[in-house]
Design goal:
Helices cover 46% and strands 6% of the residues. The chain has 21 helices and five strands. Bound molecules: flavin-adenine dinucleotide (FAD).
Length: 490
């Protein structure tokens, strides 16, 4: 009897840079030899990644490569068009099975479908899995059978389909096949994901530990800390009350199902004092991520076109100076400036402050939301094609289930409500460090002696507001009234 031929599989890592609960990796690991692969994709029409998420990706890949190596497997890194790379590898290495976890953007889906059909003609077992979401976009439908447009019924329908699947353990890994035929392998550094001149990543290094171990640590710290009280405190940027898991979810160095399961377990075993309200609120935030992917899947131009077409007629203002002041955190509104500087320094911004800063750009400065979306895309470690676009459209009022356009955040009262002692502002706007809480969100109202005591010279050491809140509010409302009434975009 001839021995069965040695089976070789390929797992293609994309947004699933982990071994734990990785269904595609587990399926590929059933083979005798396993090629683990990351491709720096070019020529596929995908949106180029931003600087901060590139930095995060570098370190998440380094950590993945190390953990694979610990199990005797080598992560191969290549650059190019996966529609050519993968079929070539299949021929060169005699690969019989290719696996990946699904993506939901239009260009990515096209790429994956094209590869799948070539692999079929090569007689290869090509398998794709859900490794990114609790509920895939095609699983949740309205009663009429179409896509959902409103979050609450979406989340209710999703939860009603089934409970989230249990996560899988990390598989035992077979060794790599002979890699000699792969001549174009790159070193991680050759992806040029790290900033050098200048190295702006110091604050990112202090904030994040990319990779599975760092993600797991964040989750455990959240379960032991922020989850208890999350329902109320999640809006407080001055408190460490949210999970900071978003960047990890974006590269997939932690699985959404693992997060769900560990939070659920912590509740049932009494590991946390968080009440049902805290847990439900946290789960519903995970639900917003699911909803954003549902929207992206059904409306692929979410990052570039208004979901509600009537917003195409919006009279956006071209204001280079305003845009720059916003990007640099020099608008003269302390909560806005603190948020924008937090973003620049750490690659993160608290959700409440994202809403305030986005609203300021769109409504106070009347700058097109797409300018803000692309700035966040470049500067956020958690830059995510679905969450970023859906959230910007939510704030703009142009999205599905969006905040109404006439809801204009007041940056002064928002600051006073959610950063009542001013500690968040003091952390990121050192010019205001000595301002008392009473005036920290409105320094222009402070009497001269208080300004003098705080060493603050408005217009010199810290800018005066670049636009008046009352004037800006009226202007935005007028502009909104000029829009034609119209149905939504789907
Ligand atoms: C203008 C704007 C842009 C945004 N851009 C992004 C982005 O590029 N990437 C991104 O992951 N999130 C984005 N968000 C959503 C949200 O601000 C972040 O997910 C959250 O601040 C991440 O912090 P955390 O992990 O501590 O959140 P937690 O409060 O701990 O929430 C847990 C997880 O739930 C998800 N989540 C929470 N809030 C939202 C939300 N409003 N929409 C969708 N998912 C949510 C995230 O995956 C998050 O990690 C944006 C929000 C706004 C207003």
């Amino acid at each position: 009897m001839p021995l069965p031929s040695r089976s070789v599989a390929l797992h293609w890592f994309r947004q699933d840079l982990r071994q734990d609960d990785n269904p595609a990796l587990s399926a590929a690991a059933e083979s005798d030899a396993l090629l683990t692969l990351f491709i720096d994709e070019i020529s596929t029409g995908h949106r180029p990644r931003g600087g901060a998420s590139g930095w995060f990706l570098h370190h998440a890949l380094a950590s993945l490569a190390e953990s694979l190596a610990a199990k005797g497997n080598t992560l191969v890194i290549l650059r190019g068009d996966p529609r050519e790379i993968i079929p070539n590898l299949v021929s060169d290495l005699g690969i019989g099975r290719v696996t990946w976890n699904r993506r939901y953007g239009a260009a990515e889906r096209e790429t994956d479908a094209a590869i799948k059909s070539v692999l079929k003609t090569q007689g290869v077992d090509a398998q794709s899995f859900n490794g990114h979401l609790l509920y895939e976009p095609m699983e949740v439908r309205s009663q009429a059978g179409g896509p959902m447009r409103v979050f609450t019924p979406f989340w209710k329908a999703a939860r009603a389909t089934r409970p989230p699947h249990a996560p899988l353990p990390a598989p035992a890994l077979p060794p790599s096949p002979d890699l000699a035929p792969i001549t174009e392998r790159l070193m991680l550094d050759e992806l040029d994901l790290l900033p050098t001149k200048p190295d702006w990543a110091g604050g990112l290094r202090d904030t994040w530990q990319p990779g599975e171990a760092g993600a797991r640590e964040k989750l455990l710290a959240f379960i032991e800390g922020g989850l208890d009280g999350y329902g109320d405190d999640r809006n407080r940027p001055d408190k460490p009350s949210t999970s900071m898991l978003s960047a990890h979810l974006a590269v997939g160095d932690i699985s959404i199902r693992r997060i769900w399961q560990m939070v659920e377990m912590a509740r049932t075993t009494g590991q946390t004092r968080a009440d049902d309200g805290d847990v439900a609120k946290f789960f519903s935030e995970l639900g917003w991520r699911e909803f954003a992917y549902h929207l992206l899947f059904h409306y692929p131009r979410l990052a570039s076109e208004n979901y509600q077409p009537k917003f195409e007629a919006f009279p956006w203002v071209k204001d280079e100076a305003g845009l720059k002041a916003w990007q640099q955190g020099r608008t003269g509104y302390p909560i806005v400036d603190a948020g924008m500087r937090q973003l620049w320094q750490t690659g993160f911004m608290h959700n409440r402050v994202r809403m305030i800063t986005a609203s300021f750009l769109i409504k106070h400065l009347m700058i097109d939301w797409r300018e803000g979306e692309s700035w966040f895309w470049d500067t956020l470690c958690d830059a995510d094609p679905a969450n970023n676009a859906a959230s910007w459209q939510w704030v703009a009022g142009s999205g599905a289930d969006a905040a109404p356009y006439f809801r204009i955040f007041n940056p002064i009262t928002q600051g006073e409500k959610f950063d009542p002692d001013g500690n968040f502002v003091r952390r990121f706007v050192p010019e205001l460090k000595l301002m008392p809480a009473e005036f920290i969100h409105r320094p222009w109202d402070a009497p001269a002696h208080i300004l003098a005591r705080a060493g603050l010279k408005l217009g010199e050491t810290y800018p005066r507001p670049i636009v008046s809140h009352e004037m800006a509010r009226e202007r935005a409302l007028e502009a909104f009234k000029s829009l034609p009434p119209a149905a939504s975009g789907l």
